[in-house]
Amino acid sequence: MVALCAQMRSHFEGPEHAEGGIQLQHSHRVWRQLNDLQPAALRCNAMASPSASVDSKAELTSLLEQWERDQQGSTSDLVSILTKISELIERETEEYHKADPDPFDDRHPGRADPNCMLGHLLKILFKNDDFTNALLNTYVMTSREVSLNTAACRLLLNIMPGLETAVVFQEKEGVVEKLFKWAQEAEQPLRIYATGLLAGAMENQDIAANYREENSLLVPLMLRRLQELQDKDAKSRLEFKRPSPRKTPGEPLLPLDEEAVDGNFEDAASLQHRGKEEVEEEETPALQKEESALDRPGMGMQPDLSFSLASPHKTSGRANPSIKPAVEPVYQAAPLLGPGAGGPKREGVAHSWKKPDREGGQKAKQKLNFSLPEPERSFSELSNSSWSEMSPWVIGNNYHLYPLTPAIEQRLILLYLTPLGEYQELLAVFMQMGARELLMHYIDLKLTNDAQLTFEALKYLASLLLHKKFAAEFVAHGGVQKLLEIPRPSMAATGVSLCLYYLAYNQDAMERVCMLPHPVLADVVSYTLWLLECSHASGGCHATMFFSISFAFRAILELFDRQDGLRRLVNLISTLEILNAEDQGALLSDDEIFSSRQTAKHTCMALRRYFEAHLAIKVEQVKQSLQRTEGGAPVHTQPYYKACSYTREQVVEMMEFLIEYGPARLYWGPAEVFHKLSCIQLMLQLISFACDWRTYYGRSDTVRYALDILAILTVVPKTQTLMSETVDVLDEGGSTVCTVGMSIILGVAEGEVFVNDAEIQKSALQVVINCVCAPDKRVSSIGKFMAGTPRRRLPQPTKASETC
């Protein structure tokens, strides 16, 4: 058995040394409105008394010492010790979640929040190699005592936040097989504990592929069990004279175009008898796993954050998932050193199955404070309810695995189904057994009254939304409206962000969303803007991704502008402490600095998509004006529900057209808003600062996105004028100095910082070209700054009244 105390090198390094990944810090926006509902003791949880911390540590130490003495004792004694440790971990897990951590943050709790007691307890536990080895080797694998197996599995589930599950399940031979057997045959609660542990194993694609037959048998069993638990809950509600949560699904709200959705879709029974080639033809083309960084020329080990729709990825003989969007994980974790880490296993290297718990800074645990920018959209119960009544809706209220409740059982089943939802080979089973109807119940908090259960259901729903067939039916049967009913703020609302992002990535599904009634679509944009500003860090990240993709749909773009979306998107960058010229966020931890840089990168990418979409609209308007005055072929506008995407060459052509044929005093609404928000200076400052982010793998992407934004905006003469104004930047010594904005662009164009990076130089040169190669009537004073010599005439013919 591997030594459990082996420390990973990345545990001591900053997050920027890890390959790939994205970490976003918790939002600094404070949620206040619900704060008065909390008991004072809960609000002060982050400032727990030192004595309580000492007591928990001492209790765990005492239990481990007792185990050392009694490890050869009776089964009942061992079960008692393991149970007490589980109860202690569960108690601290509940305390940890009262601080409202990001539910998508899968880092070690000790790294996510260095002050939390849960992190300290996990560290103490994993320092005891004998105990952790015995837990898996003896109590799970060797022992035939069901009570001991059950207690060990319960404890393993509780310490999962500190485990590198891929290493555990791959290196310990036979453990996955035993868990499958227990999940099918064992008595409760061992059966459901084994199911929860299988969820961690199935997160690894190699493991899931190797156990495709076992999964094909277990998945139907779990879906039937969920149905039974829902029916039982429905009967219980009827007994108490409450309306049943089981609702008969009505007719689709939108017509289903079977040919467009998935004309070859068949039920599970027929799918099992089809050949591999036929299954490959049915593979959903909506989303693909990002290709390996080693397979992308020129990309090295940097993950690509592309949002272009991928081509179908054929299924091999192994289970192959319908691939997720090419997006980095929301939180940066240290790189794995074992199988499944993106590289071959190195012989002679001991792999720790302890998740790295590097304490990434002095960030204190955040309290639960809430604000609702749109109180009219909040649930009316919030103002008159106590925190004890509202906490199940906001953060959940049960983190104890015993006594086993129906809610816990359903959560662990959903946890197992989530990583398997991506697999095309299981889609027919999910569809035939009514997964959509089941999920429509779970995502209704008024029925579950459990934010944890609804959140797990939303994660499972997101994995199924990767499939065209499922996504189309979900939208057609009112699924989007059900998502919008989930109250804010809550853990479940953060789960909605992932569903919206995956819907946006599925172009067919997004077209159907854009065809929903206008009030519904307006609510989609409103909800996502709230997530952008007030959700957890992952919710803001997913919301940014949603808009980055959906700006291609004019229906979304128009509603985004009507709801002041540009200002709210820009605020993500303008409020970053790392852009403060005075200290550049000197008090931030390494994790927080990295997260801020990722925020800047993703926001710039979304802004570039935003201005590309508006550029196309402006070009259409100018062409229509010219057609009316000078004749020519009519200009056809793309339907509002269809996506419009453009290549780099098309964007350059549109900029050249607008510069050449646009009016001398071109007025462009989005550009004017950008000017009023002082964002030209902000982009220039960001470019200057980002050039010094030499340890950040996304540095070049951030600079290129910002340059592309400026290039589009320089079609407006006012932007060119603003480029000649001064900007506060840092010199080589770290002192604040003023420099002309255009000199920052020239420095990048000349290759002073990014050596041999042609793409960045092209983007910088495009800004220069747009400023100096406009017709005389549009040239601003920036031309004088660019060169003291007269501008050369371009070789192409020009209008009689204009020269270049």
UniProtKB/TrEMBL annotation:
Any one of the GO BP annotations: protein ubiquitination
GO molecular function terms noted in the UniProt entry: histone H2AT120 kinase activity; nuclear estrogen receptor binding
Span list, region Disordered: 234-257, 272-303, 338-364
Alphabetically ordered keywords of this record: Nucleus
InterPro entries: VPRBP/DCAF1
Example of a GO cellular component annotation carried by this entry: Cul4-RING E3 ubiquitin ligase complex
Superkingdom in the source lineage: Eukaryota
Subcellular location: Nucleus
Sequence intervals crossing the membrane: none
Composition-biased stretches (Basic and acidic residues): 344-362
Name of protein: VPRBP
Origin species: Albula glossodonta
